[in-house]
Amino acid sequence: MGVPTTASSSSRSRRSPLKSLISGGLAGMLAKTIVAPLDRIKIMYQVTSRPFSLLHLPSTISQIIRLEGPLALWKGNSVMMFRVFPYAGVQFMVFDSLKLYLQPLTPEKTLIAGSTAGAVSTVCTYPLDLCRARLAVVKGKSTAGDFRVMILKIMENGYGQLYRGITPTLVGMVPYAGLAFSTNEFLRGVCRKVNGKEEISTWQKLQCGGVSGLIAQSAVYPMDVTRRRMQTSGGFEGVKKTVWETMKTVYEEQGLRGLYKGLTLNWFKGPIAFSISFTTFDFIKMRLDEFEARQEDEKSGIERIEELEELGGGETDETIVAAPTKRMMTSKRKSSKRDKQRRKDSNR
């Protein structure tokens, strides 16, 4: 990428991190809300020794609805939204920013950018992820009061409890985010070559996001099981287990399959969430770019008109300023002048 040479391009470059933050945050919220019921069921199985099968999915959903109501499928999702917006926003913002600094991009650089983005966003929002996991396994209806009580109980054992389980989270998140972003970028590059043009279709974006999510989540899934166990067991009593002790406990209870329990459910949830997230991010960012471009065009049009009027070229503005936006602003200003003249004449 070249160095910006105009005030307009420089301004857009400075604002791009904010646009990435907003676009990524909204995209993450939408994706997580859609897959929240599957996420809750996955957590419920991850933190117990009960065997999981996709055949159990309908009965588990009906049991939750019967005992707790339909909205219980989204239990903890409100807390998750507070976490997801900054988490996804920071992740996309850091990744986009690093892509600019690491030009020209290679697969290795893309992997580094994605891994760094995942690590930074995880550290920034981890306490909310911890609380969301705790709420997901609590039976009965949850309220804002439950959330406050849970925070206080966790903090009774020290502020460090707010980051209980962050080690396996980071161990899993660094390669997870790196693989997800780098695979998505690689697959999009393949689609561009196949299409013979820079732009790819929405369907191709959905497919690239889905495949990248499937690969990334499958690769690091044991760490996801481990962090959920650490998040939901022992935190209230202050009992502490290391990452390897927790993995050993899961292995002794359920064998190797225990470390991959719920993975088949993740094969449904992950690709859906990733495809929605990546595609929605692109859509929102494009709309923000278009809105910003219109605003800057209107601003430059007004400035140009004022310059021409100062030079005495007010009558020829319409022929000199060719852009539609500028012609519109010229017409508005002339109409305003005529209105002022009429008011002066009526006062006389």
Automatic annotation (TrEMBL):
Q: Where is the composition biased (Acidic residues)?
A: 306-318
| Stated name of the protein | Mitochondrial carrier protein
Keyword entries, A-Z: Membrane, Repeat, Transmembrane, Transport
**Residue stretches of each Solcar repeat:** 15-101, 105-190, 204-287
- Where does the record place it? Membrane
A Pfam family of this chain: Mito_carr
- Which residues does the annotated region (Disordered) include? 306-348
Q: Where does this protein come from, organism-wise?
A: Triparma strigata
Major place of residence? membrane
List where Basic residues composition bias occurs.
Answer: 329-341
